[in-house]
Amino acid sequence: MNDAVHQPDSVSVLLPGGAPGPFDYAKGGHDLKRGDIIQVPLGRREVLGVVWGPGTGEVGHNRLKAVSGVFPVPPLPPVLCDLVDWMAGYVLASRGSVLALCLRSGEALEPPKMRTIYRRGPLEPARMTPQRQRVLDTAADGLARSPAEWAEISGASVATVKGLIEAGALVGVEVPAFASHPCPDADHAGVALSPAQRGVADELIASLGEGFSTTLLDGVTGSGKTETYFEAVGEVLRRGGQALILLPEIALTHQFMERFEARFGCRPAEWHSDVKSSERSRTWRQVAEGTARVVVGARSALFLPYPDLRLIVVDEEHDNAFKQEEGVIYNARDMAVVRARMGEFPIVLASATPSLESWVNARQGRYRYLALPARFGVAVMPRVDLVDLRKERPPSGRFLSPPLEEAVEHALSRQEQSLLFLNRRGYAPLNICQTCGHRIECPNCSSWLVEHRFRLKLVCHHCGYERPKPQSCPQCGTPNAMASSGPGVERIAEEVAHLWPEARIAIASSDVLHGPKQTQDALERMAEGEIDILIGTQIVAKGHNFPNLTLVGVVDADLGLSGGDPRARERTFQLLHQVSGRAGRAEKPGRVLLQTHQPEDRLMQAIAAGDRDKFLALEAEDRERLGFPPYGRFAALILSGTDDALLEEYARTLAAAAPHAEGASVWGPAPALMARLRGRTRLRFLVKTTRNFRIQAFVAEWLAAAPPPSKVRLSVDVDPQSFI
Ligand code: ADP
Ligand code: ZN
């Protein structure tokens, strides 16, 4: 064993992925520093790694393998490496698996692909034709173009251009195959901000370059939050830095890109799983080189190698979609705050319905609080009325109550648009036998199969299992006894088509059949006024601007309130508030009708009264009394497996191994809310601690004392958002 801690000739190298490490490698003559992206031998393979620091000396130097090569890209910035280290400790994942989030684009590491374009050369062609002359006349501008571009601009054929190339009259130049991201122009087309907006924008701008700060930008939908944080982004551009805007959902990026382009003259770099991989490579590289100046993307955009990031905006900060629930389980909003702290720059969390956490942080002075209380221009907040479904019953087999039906009728008569909101895909959430009461369940999960009429299938929304709808009851065999129970958006669409056969209707849901593209189309047609009644799931709740939409009807406001999820109420409030905010965003005043069975509930009352802060204050009180986040901390452990006996045995072992500590309690094992998922049985432990308790150390110690057998999968979710 070597005793030196810092081996001058070796480095420790972290490998992206599940492997432990870092491992020591000899430098092999390379000049290396932390963050350098290198290739190293591992067993018989060559793999990608990142220099993590000096060698530890834990392996004798004579036995070290050497680094085989260094990729010609800028190193990962030191703060990104620090973030990987920090985050791995926080979310209890291996450092390699967190590092993998930063290296999502293998191609980006190769030298950039080149292509050849042509400009005027020194030679005159031996034979001149009018066509050739046209090309050469155009070439007098000295610019280089591809053969196709030459042909297009001069009106000659590609063959003519090629002839000139052969004759040496046009000569080739090698350029990178991908163009650089153009730099957005801060002064392209700003709007004249209202005094309140100006105040907020100025404060955001003032925070730039002043170190780390977190600002909660709280403003109703349509108040101009985007307009104001664009001012701060513009200022970052003027000063030569990079900015990142995180959005919760890919479906939102499209409209956002256009809006960004209108403001800054070109599109920002876009980063999410729907962007094609060559484009992602280009973006990764240009971010690393500092030439991509603004990135708009989903949570993984946080892990790009920005050398000069100076501002992060997390829009719709309350949104659950910032939580990654698979693989490395992390909350991109929270990690973005950490990234900003490490990079010593400001971060802005924007929302019309801030998460309770952020709201409490702002109340307690940990976050700066900036508010935009009013809608921009003449638009006012819609009036919200509750429809008591116990009194105003829809006709049998239907779901729209008389007041809601009347309101839609009224909107139609004025040629205004309506949105009927129901957060449930498909036709019916459940099929029940009219004779024996049997319900059709997923064979792999604890959930009912959802009926999809368009596809004539019953589908599991958790695992994707599907089957045809049976003619007779699978249990008692009675023919034609299976009845659809409850509504999904397709069923509401059916009712609407029946009530208003003349109306132009569309469904917007993230459904398998319709896909993101068609949903996008529906949203665009809605924005352009080509739809009278849009029936949608939560996909329509966010971000979109429909100027002629004056009525929002919430078919089932109670949906989402049942179940044991401590955040269910907060989330329901946010969703109802957001969807209500879709109404009346332009000159025409909006109206919202919420159908509910519990109009006296304080949540419904708060929505109707438009009193968000009262609702949050009461929720915060409840959480404080119970010691729930943000007044305490949670970590969930989910054990799953296919061998129930083994699973239960391990759960008992784990329960017995739980450490005892003041300030921490362990609940469980209990069946998870989804007690079966994708064919696996699931058990859950919940660790609850006081606010300043080191919950990671507690869980790590616990798991070290009772590691899972190989047939049991264990995942740890620190600060869980969802409780399935
Ligand atoms: P939020 O992000 O709070 O929902 P937006 O920034 O999207 O609000 O603004 C809502 C709408 O009002 C957008 O169409 C936006 O262009 C417009 N708007 C906001 N502020 C102004 C302004 N000062 N001048 C012109 N239009 C504005
Ligand atoms: Zn299933």
Task: Walk me through what this model shows.
30% of the residues lie in helices and 24% in strands. With 724 residues, the chain is α/β, with parallel strands linked by helices. Strands 10-11-9-12-15-8-16 form a seven-stranded parallel β-sheet, sandwiched between helices. Strand 3 and strand 4 form a beta hairpin. The chain is globular and about 90 Å long. The N terminus is likely disordered. Bound molecules: adenosine-5'-diphosphate (ADP) and zinc ion (ZN). Zinc ion binds next to loops.
Q: What are the key terms here?
A:
724 residues; alpha/beta; GIY-YIG endonuclease; Rossmann fold; 5 domains; six-stranded parallel sheet; 30% helix; 24% strand; disordered N terminus; binds zinc ion
